[in-house]
Each structure stands twice: as C-alpha cells, then as structure tokens.
Fold this protein.
Amino acid sequence: MCKMTLCPGWDNISVENVYSFNILRVVRYAIFFNILFFFLLFSQSSLFAQCDIKNNVFQSGEKLFYDGYYNLAFLWLNAGYVTFSVEETVKNREKLFKITTIGGSHKGYDKIFKIRDTIEVIVNPVTIEPIEYKQITYEGSYTAEHYYKFDKTTRKVNMRIRRDKAPWETKTIDWPPCSFDVLSMAYAARTIDFSKYKINDKIPMNLIVDGEHQALYIRYKGIEVIQNKDGKSYRCLKFSPLLLEGTIFNKGEDMTVWVTDDRVRVPILVEAKILIGSVKAIFTGAESLKYPIEAEVIQIE
C-alpha cells in the first residue's frame, strides 16, 4: 500500500472516488490562476493600461506538461494530466496563434469518471488579443460548450453557451479595454516585469470566465526556491489567488502557486485545499520554449 508517496492510478479506491472527477478541473483551474497573477500585476502597470503588449516570451511549438495529484490523509493519487500548447494558424489570410489546453483523467481513472476537457483560443501573435474562444467539456455524463467571438469594433463579446445538452444560450457582454479570456490572458501576462511589486501586495482584477465577469484578486508572496518532484530546484515567484466558493473550493486564499522567476514564467507547482483533501499540479516537462528555464538553481557540491 502506497503511503506518503505519489501513486499511479488505482483501479479500486473508496472515499476518493467521490472527488476524483474534480481533480482535473482543479488542476487546470490552479494552473490558470498561477498565470492570472501575472495579469493582475500587469493590470496595475502603465504598460497594461495602454495595452502595449509585445510578445517576446513564447513562440509557436511551445508545450507545457503537468500531472495532477489528489491527496486524502497520507495518500497521493496521480489522477490526471494537463497540457498547454501554442501553434501557428491562418485565418482570413492573417497569421495567428492558436493556444490550446487539454485536461484528462488517466486511463486507470476513466472507469470511475472520465474527463476530457479542451480550451482553444485564437489570438494575435504579437498583442495576444483574443479573436475566438472555444471550450469543450466532457466530465462523465456532463458536457458543456462555450464559444466566444471578440468584436474589436463594438468592444463586445458574443457568446454561445450550452450546458449538459440544454438549449443553447446566446448572450453579449461588454469587452472592457485590455481584458482577456482566461487562456489568452495567461499568455499575454507572461511579458510582465515583476521587480516593482512588494510582498503582500493585493491586486484586484476583472476576468471574463464562464460567460461572465468575475472580480478576484491575487496576493503576491515574494520569491522562494522550491524543489520539484524531479529533484530539480527553481527560483520562483510565489502567490495566492482568491478562490471562488463552489463545489470544489472554499472561498479564500487556500491556493499557493510557484512560477519560474525568469523570462519564460513557467508554472512549476500549484497546491490547493479543496472541500475534502487537497490537490497538486506538478510540472513534468516542456518543449520548444523560446528561452531556456534560467531559474533552475544548480547545487554545487
């Protein structure tokens, strides 16, 4: 029996069966939030206020990989995965980026509760301004679809949403200047200079998510060196986001995120308490980064 370790998927588990289907949602949510922190800091700077974003951080071909773990008492279960990728695409003869994140349960957990979630957003490769957003969710018998189109002329977001095979909902909301959907925001915000911020700075934000605007904040907690599961140590920015109360989280700052303090801002570790137990998202690898990860701390013996 595995105790105090990170265990692969099991065919038979008891109490944790009830919560295993939430793990991938939490993991992806957690990874999004770590990069949302960049947006929050960015939103307070003159650079963000002017939307003067010029991408020199990521490139077509970049991929990031994570494993998601669920903890109950002394047992850690490796229940799922999340990937992020960037590729070049063409729309109306214009070269653009398609950014994609995919989350899924490992095969050993599919018989308990199968998850396959995908989010895609088409963006301008320089300004990272979103053009089209698509989210497809399969979680057991539950399905949902979100389609957003961002209209630069009217500054509106036109949405079509369907949850669990219900009739389509069509709505239009305002698109405030310099605001993004959750995925394009995550990548736009990787261009920020963090040197001007102090420990315990608390910064509010307004985010377009799940068809609505949400008011949240992030608390910056400084720089810390952490060791990843692979034994490598990284110098990281550390922070805690305000979580929304719901079926997974209690409301509060019960999530901590560490991202590399370098030019690529790669999320390394996310830890969060949930209603029962806790979860982790752990960085497992990357491909085609524009720059090497320079925040790795080399131990000299």
About this structure: The first helix runs from residue 17 to 20. The chain has one domain: 6-287.
